[in-house]
Amino acid sequence: MQFYERMVEEVTSLPEVQDTDVITDLFVSSDAEVAVLFDTGSGVGSDRVRLRLDEASGSALSTVQVPVLRGRSFTAADTSSSPPVALINSALARLWNGETPLGRRLKLADLCDTRREPPLP
C-alpha cells in the first residue's frame, strides 16, 4: 500500500491535477457469481448474486463523479486494520427488501476474510 500512497501523493502534487485516488480494476474485471449472506435485522438472508469487487481509496467515488446516495464514502480511517466497510449499489441493496442496508453486515462466501469478520449468526 505504501507504493499507492506515495504515487497518490506525488501525482496530487502536480499543479494540473485536481484530485487523485486509487481504484482496483475499475470497469475492467468481470463479474463473479457469489453467495451473499446478509443481516436483515430480523435474521439472516442469503442469495446468489453477480457482482464485482473493487478496492478504492479515500474519495475515489467523488474523483470519478459517482454520488453516494445513502451512507458515506470511504475515509482515511478505513484501513486494512479498521473494521471492514462496503459501498454497495442499489441492485445489491434490494436484498434487504426495502429496509435500509446501512449498518447491516454482509458476507461474501469464499471471498470474506473470516479472520477479520466473524460469520453472520
Low-confidence stretches: 111-121
Strand order of the largest sheet: 2-1-3
Question: What's the story with the biggest beta sheet?
Answer: 3 strands, antiparallel
Quickly count the helices: 3
Helix and strand element order = HEEHHE
End-to-end distance:
33 Å
Helical content stands at: 10-25%
According to DSSP, the number of beta strands is 3
Main structural class: alpha+beta
Strand content: 15-25%
Domain count, please report it.
1
Query: What is the approximate shape?
Result: elongated
Radius of gyration of CA atoms, rounded to a whole number: 16 Å
- Mean pLDDT rating: 75
Protein name: Acidobacterial duplicated orphan permease
Describe the protein.
- The protein is α+β, with helices and mostly antiparallel strands and 121 residues long.
- It has one domain (20-108).
- Helices cover 16% and strands 16% of the residues.
- The protein contains 3 helices and 3 strands.
- Strands 2-1-3 form a 3-stranded antiparallel sheet, with no helix packed on it.
- The longest helix has 11 residues, at 2-12.
- Mean pLDDT is 75; it is low at 111-121.
- This is Acidobacterial duplicated orphan permease.
Core attributes:
about 120 residues, 3-stranded antiparallel β-sheet, disordered C terminus
Give a concise summary.
This protein is α+β, with helices and mostly antiparallel strands.
